[in-house]
Amino acid sequence: MLGLRGCRLGITMPEITSMQVCAIIEAVCELAKEGKKIIPEIMIPLVGMVSEMKSQKDLVREVAQETMDRYSVKIEYLVGTMIELPRACVRADRIATEAEFFSFGTNDLTQTTFGFSRDDAAKFIDFYRTSNLMGADPFATLDREGVGALMKVAIAGGRKTHSGIKLGVCGEHGGDPSSIEFFDELDLDYVSCSPYRVPIAILAAAQAAIRKEGKEK
Length: 217
Hints:
The protein has ten helices and five strands; from the N terminus they run H-H-E-H-E-H-H-E-H-H-H-E-H-E-H. By secondary structure, the chain is of the alpha/beta class. The chain has a single domain (about 5-215), classed as Alpha-Beta Barrel (TIM Barrel). The chain has a five-stranded parallel beta sheet with strand order 1-2-3-4-5. Helix 9 links the parallel strand 4 (about 165-170) and strand 5 (about 190). The N and C termini lie far apart (about 45 Å).
């Protein structure tokens, strides 16, 4: 899950980023001509350094402008990043100078924080749990002490630089009730998850909101 992927692929092969951005902006321009207003959020994955974010953001802006000029249409769009690496969390204040939103990729952030791989973690996680070395599968329920602590650092850094930055979660943890409760405590704007987990996520989010309202009274 490491190596040449995410923003690294887009930086070394910019034609991939260009193609994807062009497709997104073309689609939104087509809809704009139909009278529909869509504000796409273009997310740069696996960013660890602000230089990576700026490099890809500059390319996104260039391609988006070229596409809008070609359609003679002006649209709004946001450029942000997935926070998936510990380095991104501790340097979130710098990354937020170039990112308009953060979406925590908690699957990869769990992998890179623990040094686990989802490809083979199942071979030992059950043993860890039965041996009382670990309370829950961190790929199913967010590890609040480690991954959660890094998220708090990133949130504080992002908001310090950009007070109104949009913050959310994308990953399987977005459909886990316990994790959603924690995300609500962090005051995140949204969670996303696999389609089959959406009903559970909605219920868990509602329960978290009710609990918060109860505490505030």
